[in-house]
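Worked example

This section walks through a single chain of length 375. The input is the sequence exactly as stored; nothing has been trimmed or padded.
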Amino acid sequence: MTDHRSNRHERQRWVIKLGSALLSDSQTGLNQGLIGALAKACVALRDRGIDIVLVSSGAIAQGMARLGWAERPHELYQLQAAAAVGQMGLVQAYQQAFEGFAVETAQVLLTGADLSDRTRYLNARSALRSMLTLGIVPVVNENDTVATEEIQFGDNDTLGALVSNLVEAEYLVILTDQGGLYEADPRKVADAPLVKTAVAGDPALEAYAGPSGVLGRGGMLTKLQAATKAARSGASTIICSGYELENLAGIVDGNFPGTLIRAGAGRVAARKQWLAGSMRAKGVLLLDDGAVGVLTTSGKSLLPVGVIQVDGVFERGDLVDCAARDGRAVVARGLVNYSSSDATKIAGQPSSEIEKILGYVDEPELIHRDNMVVL
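Given that input, the structure is written out below as tokens.
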């Protein structure tokens, strides 16, 4: 398979999340027609320069249908069994829908532990980025079969927000069985006003949220909370109807269906705030003058060849400072792709020598520019 992205840096990334209320069908367990329509909409977006990551609920609902269960069980082991059974049908449905457009899909199962551990976070990030580069549509779900209360996300709205952070998405699109966020429950108040635009984190929005549904764990409140989480990396959130998928194309032209919840800060500002202020650096990379110039003027990634000294003890995925050779002026900070011991071995060497020196290669960059903030 070849790289489908003629100019990858001009393409956007969107995360589209679907809930159980949309995907479930009382007879078959899955709404096959909706999945087919979604595949068509995603392919149309890809043709317009949008890379798509799907975050899909539906495994437990599908498993319940296959097992003949009318009510969602409460016992964890039964939920895990239903998820294991349902994943089979869920993945097959997406695969068949996208195959009709000659597009490959991939199943990605995550737990909270995968995104809280920095090394596993970077592994997941690299895998998803690689799939998008290859033209694959990842279908992400929580790994309900092994997730316990301590490591589960709690709902796929939260998972969608964290995946948006992971791939640095421009938009998190949450598809629901409603037209968006209303000032009152539209199922009870026929003329309830639709909230067209808002800012992520506005506490006034929570007054509009109602309870969750029968099959899903999320409700409108979790969607608002997800919008706040997605905004941490500068992603805006759109809450809209999953029954009007043709409206997704309008987002590209600035015509937003449903409710648009804007991030309070732009993508660069939000990420800079996160990297610059949320963690303490575990080490320092001293750079030669050439590397300092490349980082500060060109915005490129940091390669091992520009590093003259490695200070501190850190692991892959930890935050490190990048300083001029005298160590006094910190010019950037970012998430490092190699541990301090490995970074010491490859410091000053070209990227082509990484595998020869270490016996493996994770990334050609010591710090990728997407995980770096120039100060």
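What to look for: Residues 1-9, 212-218 have pLDDT under 50 and may be disordered.
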